Amino acid sequence: TNGLDHVEVDKIRDSGMMLAHCPGELSSVALAESAMMFILVLAHDYGNARQNFAAGKYYYPPGRELVGLSLGIVGFGASGQQLARRAKPFGLRIAAVDVRPFDQTLMDDLGVVELAKPDGLDRLLADADFVSLHLHLNSETHHIMSARRLGLMKPTACLINVARGPLVDEAALHQRLIDGKLGGAGLDVFESEPPNADLPAYRLANVFTTPHLAGPTDLVSQCRSVFCAKN
Fold first, then answer.
1. What span, in angstroms and rounded, lies between the C-alpha atoms of 192 and 199?
2. 191 in active site
3. Which one of 8, 65, 140, 193 is the catalytic residue?
4. First to last CA, the chain
5. Which position among 103, 120, 131, 225 has the lowest Cβ density within 10 Å, counted as fewest Cβ atoms?
6. How many CB atoms within 10 Å of residue 130?
7. Residue 224 a catalytic site member
């Protein structure tokens, strides 16, 4: 596993069993690709476009080009960096938040114009057209996207979560989406899994959901197996 939030670490260690985990970089590309997929379908209003195709309505809705729009990456570890690497060629203006400093050469290579400390998160949320979460889940990050922080986002901005569901106050997110106070969401993870797929928010044309499959691709599963064997 990449995270230990759903593992009884103390019980396992107290039993005398060895406990190990696979490093996040093994799934970082897969997670970044899924986040980039969500950005693209949200920008081009794919949900409404698909409905219009089925109804025989053509040439609408117009999408938004990504050039010049801003992407805020919350958590700049392996998957956050891989997302920046993929977002840069699309012309997105990239900012990130992390507790750690990073070398300026890396920032320049990934096209990151600003790397803020956690106290800069509110400002990043207010500025971003897309916010993508790439954090581990712990007591400090639980509901880091609270109702207050969701309220800081532009009404046209979109939230993407391929990390852990409880990073987001899901009820608050759903209400803002239903009220039209967010531009959309791309969600691969949920507070309770499996979630209730019949909830009104999941039926919106600007909400895209996948069943927690962003990480375990074919290549990731192979790499994890090899890593476990070597470990």
1. 13
2. no
3. 193
4. 13
5. 103
6. 28
7. no
- Based on the residue annotation, tell me whether 174 is a catalytic residue of this protein: no
pLDDT at 3: 64
User: What is the residue whose two structure tokens read 């053509």?
Assistant: 58
Q: Which two tokens stand for residue 108?
A: 């320049």
Cβ contacts of 219 within 8 Å, gap of 6 or more = 30
Angle between helices 46-54 and 25-43 (to 10 degrees): 50
Q: Please, which residues bridge with residue 72 across strands?
A: 95, 131
Instruction: Tell whether the model's pLDDT for residue 179 goes beyond 60.
Output: yes
**93, 134, 164, 174: which one is catalytic?**
164
pLDDT digits 0-9 by tens, 100-146: 999 999 999 999 999 999 999 999 999 999 999 999 999 999 999 99
Among residues 136, 142, 143, 212, which one is catalytic? 212
Cβ burial of 231 (10 Å; 0-12, 13-18, 19+) is exposed
